[in-house]
Amino acid sequence: MATQSRRGGSGQPDRRSGSKAESSILTKITSSSIVSRGKQAASDAAFVSKKLLRSTGKAAWIAGTTFLILVVPLIIEMDREQQFNELELQQASLLGAPPSTPALK
């Protein structure tokens, strides 16, 4: 009786015969054409998304640097001109000149 309790007793099923059947089922499943097509589709999707992410990053870099080089100086210059026009109007009102509307250029 003592030797049977150490080995797990007679109530437990033998697992060695079931593991061969399970491994052969897993082998059949992993080697099936559906699984291989799924793996190929996942690989293709990963490749396309990686390329898309890389090209999107390049496009964002180009757009960002173009904005900094061309648009930001334009915005700064327009702001300076607006401040200059406001200063002229303020000085004209202090000197007593009649308020005039700025001419459109």
Automatic annotation (TrEMBL):
InterPro entries in the record, alphabetically?
Tom22, Tom22_pln
| Coiled-coil boundaries | none
Q: Which domain of life is it from?
A: Eukaryota
Q: Where are the transmembrane segments?
A: 59-76
The main location is: mitochondrion
- Protein name (record): Translocase of outer membrane
Single biological process term from Gene Ontology: intracellular protein transport
CC annotations in GO:
mitochondrial outer membrane
Family recorded in the similarity comment = Belongs to the Tom22 family.
Q: Cite the residue spans of the region called Disordered.
A: 1-25
Q: What is the protein's membrane topology class? A: Single-pass membrane protein
Where can this protein be found? Mitochondrion outer membrane
Instruction: Write out the entry's keywords from A to Z.
Output: Membrane, Mitochondrion, Mitochondrion outer membrane, Protein transport, Receptor, Translocation, Transmembrane, Transmembrane helix, Transport
CDD domains reported in the protein's UniProt record: TOM22 (cd22884)
